[in-house]
Amino acid sequence: MTVHNLYLFDRNGVCLHYSEWHRKKQAGIPKEEEYKLMYGMLFSIRSFVSKMSPLDMKDGFLSFQTSRYKLHYYETPTGIKVVMNTDLGVGPIRDVLHHIYSALYVEFVVKNPLCPLGQTVQSELFRSRLDSYVRSLPFFSARAG
Amino acid sequence: MGGKCWPGARGERWRMADAVLFEFLHTEMVAELWAPDPDPGSGGKKKSLSVLEGLGFRVGQALGERLPRETLAVREELDALKFLCKDLWAAMFQKHMDGLRTNHQGTYVLQDNSFPLLIPMGSGPQYLEEAPKFLAFTCGLLCGALHTLGFQSLVTASVASLPACKSLGVGCLLPLNVVQALGHPHLWSLISAGKGNQINKL
């Protein structure tokens, strides 16, 4: 099992933070373009999923998987979106994504008076704590298929 | 962190609902006072620091009156300093100060290794230059509390590495009436005379 990468978007589609760990293949386009494509895809799929659902949805779109990776999605009431790509062996990680938001983003970005909200996160403390946390996860491993 | 919202029959103290309320309010006070000054020659930064210290002083005066109701009268310098390190710090930051040292000549160093208002900024040099403006209110707070307890003081803060507030140097504590008799030039000379001496752990 492994973690590939992680995106953090705000409600306006600004990519607040991007990290990668075991990403073997790049998209071949500038990072800014990649962020726009990712956000656009998430926006569309979220809208589509809620419209097509035959039942009332509680949490909405949570994840999708392809033949090679799984995308996990978590959205806060304020529109912050945490997106993590892992391999297929990783189960639901809603609690992990919630922890990244509540214990890392809120504590070290929202509460940091020198971090302007709505802009790319510059805090080294946030970056290092996020990296440490992801590396400590039981499913973080370099043995990617 | 949460607690009773009002004093009950058993005399529970008022408690802040959540420490983060104060943290956010403090952040906005600093941001407002550090907004870009249209007149760069007006000594804006020094003025902002003194305004923050003044706000802290007034809050410190009130807390000095409010908190020690159950304790005996504070007559000794050391009792006043212990009150700051324990009672005042607990009321403001839900923790105690990590260290208190003195040179036994009126200079005290109060140390907090994880000062709550600096914790979100990190542990490296990234925001070190910005730290002083987040300490001004607390310097005033200590000064105001001491004033209420009858001690005149000069409080300065320094940060060597975040989030430790390396020293809140409380200079030359004297009973208030003595200081007023001496006047400020003596106060300054007493403080500078005390600076070079060895500071010992209490």
Which helices and strands occur, and which strands form pairs?
The complex is a heterodimer of chains A (145) and B (202).
Chain A (H helix, E strand, L loop, with lengths): L2 E7 L5 E6 L10 H22 L10 E3 L4 E6 L5 E6 L7 H17 L13 H13 L9
Antiparallel strand pairs in A: 1-2, 1-5, 3-4, 4-5
Chain B lengths: L18 H15 L10 H23 L10 H17 L5 E4 L4 E6 L23 H13 L2 E8 L6 E11 H7 L1 H12 L4 E2 L1
Antiparallel strand pairs in B: 1-2, 1-5, 2-4, 3-4
Description:
The complex is a heterodimer of chains A (145) and B (202). By secondary structure, chain A is of the alpha+beta class. Chain A is built from 3 helices and 5 strands; from the N terminus they run E-E-H-E-E-E-H-H. The longest helix of chain A has 22 residues, at 31-52. Helices cover 43% and strands 15% of the residues of chain B. Chain A binds chain B through residues 107-108, 111-114, 123-125, and chain B through 20, 23-24, 27, 30-31, 120-124, 126-127, 130, 134. Chain A: May play a role in vesicular transport from endoplasmic reticulum to Golgi. Chain A: Pfam families: Sybindin. Chain A: Keywords: Endoplasmic reticulum, ER-Golgi transport, Golgi apparatus, Transport. Chain A: Part of the multisubunit transport protein particle (TRAPP) complex. The heterodimer TRAPPC6B-TRAPPC3 interacts with TRAPPC1 likely providing a core for TRAPP complex formation.
Let me know the number of strands of chain A: 5
* Unreliable parts of chain A: none
Helix-strand pattern of chain B: HHHEEHEEHHE
For the largest sheet of chain A, list the strands in their spatial order.
2-1-5-4-3
Strand line-up across the major sheet of chain B: 3-4-2-1-5
| Largest interface summary | A-B, 9 and 15 residues
| CATH C-level class of chain A | Alpha Beta
Number of domains of chain A: 1
Q: What is the count of helical runs of chain B?
A: 6
- How are helices and strands ordered from N to C of chain A? EEHEEEHH
User: What percent of residues of chain A are in strands?
Assistant: 15-25%
> Would you identify the regions of chain B where 5 or more consecutive residues have pLDDT less than 50?
1-16, 174-202
Taking Cα atoms only, what radius of gyration of chain A do you get, to the nearest Å? Answer: 15 Å
Structural class of chain B: alpha+beta
Q: Average pLDDT of chain B, to the nearest integer?
A: 71
Helix share bin of chain B = 40-55%
Mean pLDDT of chain A: 88
Give the total of beta strands of chain B: 5
For this structure, the quaternary state is: heterodimer
Category from helices, strands and their pairing of chain A: alpha+beta
